[in-house]
């Protein structure tokens, strides 16, 4: 409980400009896996929405505040502070987040209902898919009968085979295999950029 209180107090201070410069990832993880982690918030009944977690399509950005429309119709307002970690395919800065991006955010609710974010993930996707074909720096995937083009990004894309440490070589991914892909959706398309692909070698 003390840890939760201190986190909320520091995030509130950062949102109000009272905490000085807080380094990115001081509170949240840069790792995309953290966006989709099923870690329950203490005090929240199972099945109930987590008030410290927001998701939706970004409708506007004003100064340090994101307004996003959630998939359930909730209008979220998310404050980005000097301590907020931002991910968009890889760790990045807030100025790379744009209107039209999808967003997940986790943080602490302020008195005005705004969430002071410790982490924001833009366009993150987590797909389990079947590899139907492989092209030059591309994988063609079937995900729930939807065709998805997944781009390999040199210097960014990593592959994990059979749970071993990540490497940059994706050549062991095979046609007709099943994979899990963490990546970033390209808004308005059926295309993604691959952050990490998990596959059997």
Query: What would CATH call the class of the largest domain?
Result: Mainly Beta
Per CATH, which architecture of the largest domain? Answer: Beta Barrel
Counting DSSP E segments of at least 2 residues, the number of strands comes to 12
Number of helices: 1
* H/E series: HEEEEEEEEEEEE
* Backbone CA Rg: 18 Å
- Assign the structural class, choosing from mainly alpha, mainly beta, alpha/beta, alpha+beta, or little secondary structure: mainly beta
Number of domains: 2
**What low-confidence regions span 5 or more consecutive residues with pLDDT below 50?**
1-5, 10-30
CATH topology label of the largest domain: OB fold (Dihydrolipoamide Acetyltransferase, E2P)
> What share of residues is helical?
under 10%
User: Can you say what the CATH homologous superfamily of the largest domain is?
Assistant: Copper binding periplasmic protein CusF
Average pLDDT: 83
Biggest β-sheet description: 5 strands, mixed, barrel
- The end-to-end span amounts to 43 Å
Strand order in space, largest sheet = 1-2-3-6-5
Strand percent estimate: over 45%
The backbone outline, from C-alpha atoms, is: elongated
